[in-house]
Amino acid sequence: MWTKRSLQEAIKDRMKDYRFIIASNREPYIHEYSGKKIKCVKAVSGLVIALDPVMQASGGMWVASGSGDADSDVVDKHNKIQVPPENPSYTLKRIWLSKAEEDGFYFGYANQALWPLSHITYEKPIFNASDWEYYKIVNRRFADNILDEISKEKCFVWLQDYHLTLAAKYIKDKKPDAIISLFWHIPWPNPEVFRICPQKREILEGLLSNDLLGFHIHYHCHNFLSTIENELEAKVDWEDLSITYRGHKTLVRPFPISVDYEGIAHQARSPEVEQAMQNIPDTIDPPYEILALGVDRVDYTKGIVERIRAIDRFLEKYPQYQGKFVFLQFGALSRIHIKSYKQLIDNIQAIAEEINWKYGKGYWYPVVIRNIRLDYASHLAHYRAADLCLVSSLHDGMNLVAKEFIAANIEKKGTLILSQFTGAAREFSKEAILVNPYDPDGFADAIKYSIEMSELEKKERMEKMQQLLEENNIYRWAGKFISNLLKLE
Ligand code: G6P
Fold first, then answer.
1. Residue 34, SS3 per DSSP
2. Residue by residue, what is the 3-state secondary structure of the chain?
3. Ligand 1 centroid to 245 CA: how many Å?
4. Which residue has the higher pLDDT, 45 or 300?
5. DSSP H or E segment with residue 384
6. Shortest CA distance to 422 belongs to which of 296, 333, 290, 314?
């Protein structure tokens, strides 16, 4: 069993001669002004949930772009700061993007081209030539900042996600002996989908400059190998799961990402969470007997609209639950300068209002939307208080909300309704209640089934999921990834 301590020891022992650097677009800790005071908040992102405990275990450096309005006021002259604030254990090195760079790289190429292309949720990707130019500039900036840190040393560089597909190439051009890897946190699409990307050759060549490429599940590795076979003259070895391109070999492996199971379960028992639980009934406006919860970044891939449509169908089909059932959706806003995200926020609000009007009676109405970021104790308290957690992504690499809900469910009385199109559904295929978010009727029946399930069945399902999660925790994910890196020495 991997633990924080065993990961720490493995890293100390086996990586002591190496510099260990992680890079991602999103920084783990953001400094923001609140009036004249500066507060530090943790970013809302599956990637950060997963990698922050790994970095706390490893020390090392995390390179990311600064995004808070107070970020530049708290770093030293090398743009570095020790984090987390309450227990400084690793270095965050911030890089700075101009508005135009952020627009082209982040809002443009990363999130309007690669994000919809990879998720296949019928949101058309936009490939804009000037966005692509900024994407290259920013990838080079990341590479240069990493190169500054590793000039003379042996190093492992671990790049994160679709924002940084070109960085490995830029680093290898100057330091060919650097061991570089990338973990792709989102789905990899099938070759028919990927082939429309005008910059596909540069992106694939950039990715093949990595020595190790990780995806969540076999299916995405398979899609990647097929994409390479279709697009490049490379040797694809299906047995070994590797690709050799222009004399360089890249290993492709599945690493299902996870959460710090023990840490979350421990925190969920804390007095702060107990206190926050007591406050929940006063903060939810309509009275309820059954509480269903959704927690997401507001993103069209998360299937929030489909979820509310399913609730509409559930209340229509099973009117005995009107007056008793309340769905509470927490949505953290991100990427709000992109039109489709703005429209989504309005759309969710409009559908919720429509349904509340349709069913509302007296004080009761069924859907509560809160576009706020909860503090950690309230976040865990809501997981504990909820009877059901609804995860209905239209497509998701893994989905860590599902895993956080399981870890926090210490009473073992909650039920997880999980989209079959998440990576997590492969791990909890028998224990979660799987749904197709595109099928409101099936989804409605799943909600009814989950509510009416016996206490014993709920407990057994939850216990099994907790066992699976305890074994396949975040330290195992990182430990396995790092073991694979070490084999590349
Ligand atoms: C997904 C991506 C991450 C990203 C996160 C939050 O989990 O895989 O790379 O950081 O969403 O999105 P944001 O655009 O706010 O960083």
1. strand
2. CCCHHHHHHHHHHHCCCCEEEEEEEECCEEEEEECCEEEEEECCCHHHHHHHHHHHHHCCEEEEECCCCCHHHHCCCCCEEEECCCCCCEEEEEECCCHHHHHHHHHHHHHHHHHHHHHCCCCCCCCCHHHHHHHHHHHHHHHHHHHHHHCCCCEEEEEECHHHCCHHHHHHHHCCCCEEEEECCCCCCCHHHHCCCCCHHHHHHHHCCCCEEEECCHHHHHHHHHHHHHHCCCEEECCCCEEEECCEEEEEEECCCCCCHHHHHHHHCCHHHHHHHHHHHHHCCCCCCEEEEEEEECCHHHCHHHHHHHHHHHHHHCHHHCCCEEEEEEEECCCCCCHHHHHHHHHHHHHHHHHHHHHCECCECCEEEECCCCCHHHHHHHHHHCCEEEECCCCECCCHHHHHHHHHCCCCCCEEEEECCECHHHHCCCCCEEECCCCHHHHHHHHHHHHHCCHHHHHHHHHHHHHHHHHCCHHHHHHHHHHHHHCCC
3. 29
4. 300
5. helix 376-385
6. 296
Same fold, 4-258+474-486 and 261-471: yes
Residue in this structure with the two tokens 């799961």, named with its chain if needed:
241
Q: How far is the CA of 52 from the centre of ligand 1 (A)?
A: 14
| pLDDT greater than 90 at residue 480 | yes
Centre of ligand 1 from the C-alpha of residue 449, in Å? 33
Whose C-alpha lies nearest to ligand 1, atom 16?
Answer: 26
Residue ranges of the domains in the chain? 4-258+474-486, 261-471
Return the ligand 1 atom nearest residue 110 CA.
14
End-to-end CA distance of the chain: 25
User: pTM above the 0.90 mark?
Assistant: yes
What CATH number is given for 4-258+474-486 in this structure? 3.40.50.2000
Query: pLDDT tens digits, residue range 112-144?
Result: 999 999 999 999 999 999 999 999 999 999 999
CATH class of 261-471: alpha beta
What atom of ligand 1 comes closest to residue 163's alpha carbon? 9
Question: Hey, how many other C-beta atoms are within 10 angstroms of the C-beta on 75?
Answer: 16
Provide residues with CB under 6 Å of ligand 1.
Answer: 26, 45-47, 161, 185-186, 297, 334-335
* Nearest alpha-carbon partner for 299 in 216, 436, 428, 395: 395
Q: If you average pLDDT over every residue of the chain, what do you get?
A: 96
For residue 161, the ligand 1 atom closest to its alpha carbon is 9
CA 318 to centroid of ligand 1, rounded, Å: 37
Least confident stretch, 14-23, 325-334, 346-355: 14-23
CA distance 194 to 178: 29
